[in-house]
UniProtKB/TrEMBL annotation:
<comment type="function">
    <text>General (non sugar-specific) component of the phosphoenolpyruvate-dependent sugar phosphotransferase system (sugar PTS). This major carbohydrate active-transport system catalyzes the phosphorylation of incoming sugar substrates concomitantly with their translocation across the cell membrane. The phosphoryl group from phosphoenolpyruvate (PEP) is transferred to the phosphoryl carrier protein HPr by enzyme I. Phospho-HPr then transfers it to the PTS EIIA domain.</text>
</comment>
<comment type="similarity">
    <text>Belongs to the PEP-utilizing enzyme family.</text>
</comment>
<comment type="function">
    <text>Component of the dihydroxyacetone kinase complex, which is responsible for the phosphoenolpyruvate (PEP)-dependent phosphorylation of dihydroxyacetone. DhaM serves as the phosphoryl donor. Is phosphorylated by phosphoenolpyruvate in an EI- and HPr-dependent reaction, and a phosphorelay system on histidine residues finally leads to phosphoryl transfer to DhaL and dihydroxyacetone.</text>
</comment>
<comment type="subunit">
    <text>Homodimer. The dihydroxyacetone kinase complex is composed of a homodimer of DhaM, a homodimer of DhaK and the subunit DhaL.</text>
</comment>
<protein>
    <recommendedName>
        <fullName>Phosphocarrier protein HPr</fullName>
    </recommendedName>
</protein>
Length: 318
């Protein structure tokens, strides 16, 4: 029975009407990557690279990073890994990078803003990612992008890394960005010509859309990704992507089984979740019919609050 469950977890997740939804895992270490493989993940939809940079006195060089990323790729046995460039700053400072104190770190120099202010760090990281992409299927993704200009500057640095690595552009290298700033979500069509995919970070997207800090226990009920305001942003991303650019969700909402029909109904075709959540999310995909899901999703957009959306989902699931 255990063998059968493992095989089922590793099999592709296809909706009742035959549409594939990739279910990946979020990983922040090689151990996570092994857990992802054990639980049948189709890919690593988000590799958080902060683990390599925090709690130390100097940045890892490209060599050390390549070894760490390679270990993750190896654990996933040839399945694609989506490496997110460093997402620090604000509440996650680096000991070896001087940073001004900020009153509102979540609205400060973090994510791609931090990387563009400290290009030497980003240059080294992109070199490691490009080198790995010559060995394995790799996607690179930039966090906290607000403007097309930021994306283009990061892409130019990626081009430089490809030149420096030599051997031409790696055939399997795909380029994407996180959608976690509400204004960026609304501008998806402007970003679309410059990316292969976007991945919605519902943790930050909900935090910024609802003006409710994600870690603040007093606001725990407020920053819910099923709030119709957040769902409208996700809908805007799917529409802006227009079928040409793949849309993934890698925030916590993706691992919420009840929300799977909602996200699939809006047009999301990749979910990246905690490794242990992969089998359950795949089952939720298999239980979903896209025609019904699209209808439920459309109705959810017009509801008043997250509680009403959750009631609708519970009702539709019966
Ligand atoms: C998110 O914001 O939803 C996300 C996936 O990124 P992180 O949780 O690392 O900020
Ligand atoms: Mg985020």
């Amino acid at each position: 029975r255990r063998e059968r469950a493992r095989a089922r977890a590793a099999a592709p997740a296809v909706t009742r009407d035959g549409v594939r939804v990739a279910v990946g895992a979020n990983v922040g270490s090689a151990a996570d990557a092994r857990a992802a493989a054990d639980h049948g993940a189709d890919l690593a939809g988000l590799v958080r690279t902060e683990f390599l940079f925090l709690r130390r006195d100097a940045a890892p060089d490209a060599e050390e990073q390549l070894a760490a990323y390679r270990e993750i790729a190896d654990a996933l046995g040839g399945r694609r890994i989506t490496v997110r460039t460093l997402d620090v700053g604000g509440d996650k400072p680096l000991r070896y990078v001087p940073a001004a104190a900020e009153d509102n770190p979540y609205l400060g120099v973090r994510g791609i803003r931090h990387s563009l202010e400290h290009p030497a760090l980003l240059r080294e990281q992109l070199l490691a990612i490009v080198r790995l992409a010559h060995e394995a299927p790799v996607s690179v993704m930039f966090p906290m992008v607000s403007t097309v200009d930021e994306l283009l500057r990061a892409r130019r640095m990626l081009d430089d890394a490809v030149t420096r690595a030599g051997g031409g552009a790696p055939a399997g290298l795909r380029v994407g960005m996180m959608m976690e700033v509400p204004a960026a979500a609304l501008k998806t069509a402007a970003f679309a010509p410059h990316v292969d995919f976007v991945s919605i970070g519902t943790n930050d997207l909900a935090q910024y859309a609802l003006a409710a800090e994600r870690g603040n226990a007093a606001l725990a009920g407020l920053s819910d990704g099923t709030d119709p305001g957040v769902l409208r942003l996700i809908d805007a991303v799917c529409r802006g992507a227009g079928g040409r650019v793949e849309v993934a969700v890698c925030g916590e909402l993706a691992g919420d089984e009840a929300a799977v029909p909602l996200l699939a109904g809006l047009g999301v075709r990749e979910l990246s979740v905690a490794p242990r959540s992969v089998p359950g999310v795949k089952e939720a995909v298999r239980a979903t019919g896209l025609d019904v899901a699209a209808d439920v999703a459309a109705r959810a957009l017009d509801l008043a609050d997250a509680a009403a959306v959750r009631a609708l989902l519970a009702d539709a699931g019966r």
